[in-house]
Request: fold
Amino acid sequence: MAPQYQVRADHDADTIVVYQAYAPAIADAALRAGRFVAPFSFHRMTWIKPSFLWLMHRSNWARKPGQERVLAVRMTREGWEEALSRAVLTTADPAAVARAAVHVQWDPERSLRGAALNHYSIQVGIGRDLIRTFTDDWIVSLTDLTPRVRKAAALTRTGHTAQAQRLIPAERAYPLPQGPANLLTRGA
Reply:
């Protein structure tokens, strides 16, 4: 049984993959440039999710308007951990949340078919003051997963879940440093 609050992600020694869903215009511009550029908004919080299946639930497998394209955003672990070190849980004191550069919330993890599971997935909101650092310094690469998402969704809808499961990125426990680990799960 998975721990109730644990970051699970595709990661290696230097990077972690987080997922985001965008409108085609934003995704296309970012993929062409190799980083986020206009029409991506640098003036509002952007949410990153290391759980592929949670993003599939949130974007309805890239069918929700404005979320038709799914990008795998490979970022430095140093950047990820920097963001977490500046994070405040969205359930904290409202004044602390309003001042925070990064917001964190935990939502039920999802199964391949979208059912809520008994453990939680982390969502990290990068605030306006850190977005340029995120886009310019922390991102290593962007990959368009939309064709893979559409294929996995079609296989799932037609009952071929074993084949769909093979298209889901492998995620494993991410070893958080002790400070952020305590902060992020306290009161979640």
Summary: The longest helix spans residues 146-157. The chain is about 35% helix and 30% strand. The mean pLDDT is 93. The helical segments are 24-33, 52-59, 77-85, 94-99, 128-138, 146-157, 161-165, 178-185.
